[in-house]
Amino acid sequence: MKNMFSLHCNLAQILAEKEITPYKLSKEISERIGTIYKLANNDVEGARLPASLLANVCGYLDITLDELFTIVGNKKENEL
Predict the structure, then answer these.
(1) Over 42-78, what HEC string results?
(2) Is 8 helix (H, G, I), strand (E, B) or coil?
(3) pLDDT at 47
(4) CA 49: distance to chain centroid?
(5) Using an 8 Å Cβ cutoff, are 38 and 57 in contact?
(6) Model-level pTM greater than 0.90?
(7) Residue 38: count of CB within 10 angstroms of its CB
């Protein structure tokens, strides 16, 4: 069964708007650069994202979780 919805991370767009690099964010919130790049590249499927990581990202960028993530509807297999 195919997922009807997926989670899209908006971190790359937010960082660009705020003129912050993933590297700077990583250093400022003491998170692994690889994890930040995963978020920035929207590579979140199957990723473990601790609440503390999400809180640190949102707090540092002064955004909410609904700004960081968007739920996107996927087409059902029979609609393709």
Answers:
(1) CCCCCCCCCHHHHHHHHHHHCCCHHHHEEEEECCCHH
(2) strand
(3) 85
(4) 9
(5) no
(6) no
(7) 17
Tokens coding 45: 């499927």
- Whether the pLDDT of residue 78 is over 70: the answer is no
Report how far apart, in Å, the C-alpha atoms of 35 and of each of 31, 49, 58, 75, 77 are: 7, 9, 15, 28, 31
Give the pLDDT score at 80: 47
pLDDT, tens only, 21-39:
999 999 999 999 999 999 9
Bridge partner list, 9: 69
At position 46, the amino acid (one-letter code) is: G
Provide the token pair at 79.
């609609």
Q: Are 4 and 77 in contact (CB under 8 A)?
A: no
CA atoms 18, 19, 23, 27: torsion sign: negative
Cα gap 15→21, rounded to integer Å = 6
